Amino acid sequence: MKLLDIITTANHNLMRNKTRTILTILAIFIGSFCIVTTSASQAGINKFLDDQTSAFGGEGLIQMYAKSDDNNGVSAISMGSSFTGKPTKYTDGDKNEMGLKAITPEQIEKVKEMPGILKDTVLDGKFSTVTYVESTKNGEKFTASLNLMTNKSVHFELLAGRMIDNDSSENELMLPSKEWATDLGYADENEAIGKTLNFVWSDPVTKELITFPAKIVGVQAPSVISGGNVIINTPLNLKLYEENTKYLPSTEKDKVYTIAAEYDYNKYSADDIKSELDKIGLYGVDINDIMGQVRSFFDIIITIFTVFGYIALLAAVIGIVNTLYMSVQERTREIGLMKALGMGRSKIFMSFAVEAIMLGFWGSMLGTVVSILIGNLVNSSAHASDGFMQNFPTFNLVEYTPATVIPVIVTIMIIAFIASILPARKASKKDPINSLRYE
């Protein structure tokens, strides 16, 4: 008997008792649905977090700050947890302060000579600030935290436009979210591209308002890293920094508050670099510091749901064993007839094993199809204008790929085969004479 004939016969035999077969398939369906959905959720989460990792610069990028009593290394980076996407309106008297300790020139030189650090990639950042930003569309004023890309490997996910160009002669910026675009008076993030936003600085001595127009070139997708900062390019930052420090002595003007550098991550770990930085009074922040806790949180949730899926699948395995034992009992005379006609033990074993495998196949396929249909519906609903994920349009709750689906189907078919071993073995060892006498 050919394999195709065995499969066809197995499917036919399963339909002899439709109710029992359908109930067994439904039990497998529940387990496979849970497992496929959790696998797709993990794929969606990992894709989003990998995109965030890429935005920070990926492996091998570290940002450095000076150690101080009130700064432990986490507060300097906005984690984005409290960022709602909407800007805060400016009121007279509002201030923007970074609160960071300056890094000395000696520390910068020591960083450049540090083992593992790629000397040519060391870039220092001088933070600037503004009193407020003002829309040229509706005249609204908002407070703004500014940030600049100190490394070319950083790449943010965008809803519209492009990344800022640090080599441009024009002032450029990226808005933190689409909510910024709409609050500035534009219909959506696309309309804001190419428009002008005014950066206004109040001279602390003359009280004169100094305006720096800048072009909006991009709108960021929500991120767990950027945390709602307006990203500006180097030309604009230098102009603002010059105004911010206009009345300071030259020694104060040249202060640096952060350094970004790449290191050879093939030879050195982030912990190795951080240990060396600690010796010179600096601390480092890499992508794992920001993303590690986020990944751990999601991994725990995914693991819990996966365990529930396998518990449901365990119940389905019991159903498979019961279905096959009952099938063997009901088909005792048939088994005796097949043996009398010359069918060997191995083929009888295989025929029952294939029935179990087909149960696993149809149950897992049903679970997979339903999971994909519901998952895509949930993704669409979540990203709708009133959906709970509308602020994270690049974050799909579930991502279905062959790598997340096929292994689950194959695993369930293997488990179904294992569940069939005892009933199939019992069928293959039946005595043909006694089986033909069975009533």
List keywords for this structure.
single chain, 439 residues, alpha+beta, eight-stranded mixed β-sheet, four-stranded antiparallel β-sheet, 13 helices, elongated
Write up what this structure looks like.
It contains 13 helices and twelve strands. By secondary structure, the chain is α+β, with helices and mostly antiparallel strands. The strands form two sheets. Strands 3, 4, 5, 6, 7, 8, 9 and 10 form an eight-stranded mixed beta sheet that branches. A four-stranded antiparallel beta sheet has the order 2-11-1-12. Strand 3 (132-135) and strand 4 form a beta hairpin. Helix 2 packs antiparallel against helix 12, helix 9 (287-330) runs parallel beside helix 12 (402-428) and helix 11 (345-382) runs antiparallel to helix 12 (402-428).
